[in-house]
Amino acid sequence: MELAELAWPAVAALPRTTPVIFPIAALEQHGKHMPVFTDSLLLGEVIRRVKLSSIAEKCLFAPLQWLGNSHHHLDFPGTLSASPRVYLDLLKDLATCFLAHGFTRLVFVNGHGGNVTPYQQALFELKQQHRDRRDLLLLALTYWDAAGNPSSGAIPGLVQKRMGHACEWETSMVLRLNPKLVVGEVAKVPEVLHGREFTPGYRAWVMPDRSEPGHVGTPSAATAEKGEALFTHFATGVAAYLERVVAWNGTWDQ
To answer: Model's pTM, two decimal places?
Structure first.
């Protein structure tokens, strides 16, 4: 069900256990070869495919929120970003609207790595504000985590072992969506390694710390065929996750 297409009485008539889905992404630089709207384009396609499954009529989908927390990309022109606290409060307010309407199952489906820490903090704060509500299910899922790592055998031929930025995975998906959006010869885009990143600890960073051109990964290995396989893999995972939300029985272990 599409929130944008419903009149308010139709929303009011829904069971309050109907999961409300908030797709959240970004508008930010994606290297010299990819459009700034990449994250929103890719999440939009994943959600479009999810809506082709049986889950579509069991959930209420809000419009995609394209503004994300992208301050770590602001050195590159074209990036638009909400600062971390502003973005965190935006997510809280989106959720609070539907909590006020009485809905009890809210899911952020995310398409941008920079949104992860803010959405975790937003849901943490919301839960503290409603700490006695055992009927609330407040969730967030980043789409590329939904179905397990595709490089573990699910999709043959992948070079990268994890999501990067304007990388093999993202470039493949944009090639599948619209190859005209990819600038130049992908085969000539140099690899930028993830590096050690001071793991297992966390290192604060902005993109120029990691990459002069603005991408991380191996775009030269991208193909439209890999993009189709990745879209199928991720959309299947997101749909399966939302089925779990629909089936939630109120327990912790589900």
So the answer is: 0.96
The number of residues in the chain equals: 254
Q: In degrees, to the nearest 5, what angle opens at C-alpha 1 toward C-alphas 89 and 244?
A: 75
Cis peptide bond N-terminal to 200, omega within 30:
yes
Question: Under a CB-based contact definition with an 8 Å cutoff, are residues 220 and 187 in contact?
Answer: yes
Residue type, 21: I
44-78 pLDDT, tens digit each: 999 999 999 999 999 999 999 999 999 999 999 99
Domain residue extents for the chain: 16-247
Pick the CATH number of 16-247 from 3.40.50.10310, 3.40.50.150, 3.40.50.80, 3.40.190.170: 3.40.50.10310
Distance CA 199, CA 5 (A): 46
